[in-house]
Known about the structure:
- The chain is of the alpha+beta class.
- The chain folds into two domains: about 5-35 and about 175-204, no CATH class; about 40-170, Bacterial polysaccharide co-polymerase-like, CATH 3.30.1890.
- The chain contains seven helices and four strands, in the order ααβαααββαβα.
- The protein has helices at about 5-10, 15-35, 60-80, 85-90, 100-105, 130-150, 175-204, and strands at about 40-50, 110-115, 120-125, 160-170.
- The longest helix has 29 residues, at about 175-204.
- It is elongated, with a radius of gyration of 27 Å.
- The two termini are about 20 Å apart.
- The mean pLDDT is about 80.
Amino acid sequence: xxxxxxxxxxxxxxxxxxxxxxxxxxxxxxxxxxxxxxxxxxxxxxxxxxxxxxxxxxxxxxxxxxxxxxxxxxxxxxxxxxxxxxxxxxxxxxxxxxxxxxxxxxxxxxxxxxxxxxxxxxxxxxxxxxxxxxxxxxxxxxxxxxxxxxxxxxxxxxxxxxxxxxxxxxxxxxxxxxxxxxxxxxxxxxxxxxxxxxxxxxxx
Length: 204
């Protein structure tokens, strides 16, 4: 098939190409507007010790401290992936978690271990006020679970997780870029559907 024939097919089915591009642009515009009304929050959890050994001698505890902090950071990160813990945090924040699957609950918080003693927790609140409530609930629940572990410790030099650096920012979308990409993708799909329509009509 020559280029001229391809052009004729597109000319006959130009409405399909236009509709596909317009629908894609409208869909992306609606998505961009919706995303612009959402927020993203970052919270740091600092892993530390409740007490330290008060002695001038060599402290063997310090030799293993970084490794122990690293393991405890893993524990805190795993807590924030557990549906039961997420529900507990939602309850303390006064939010409803009903209707969510276990997988959805497990993906509510994204906990990344930045170092052996720092965990960054990211989540998407509905407002800055909700972000503060959730952050407070995270600190409260993690503190309670840490105290439960400390209760079984043989010495007082156990862990604590202190929240800090709460930042909430509104998600900003660049409409010009989004709509330009949407128009390009819509044209590609429109051309594809135009040829599909042509070959189906030819077979009939």
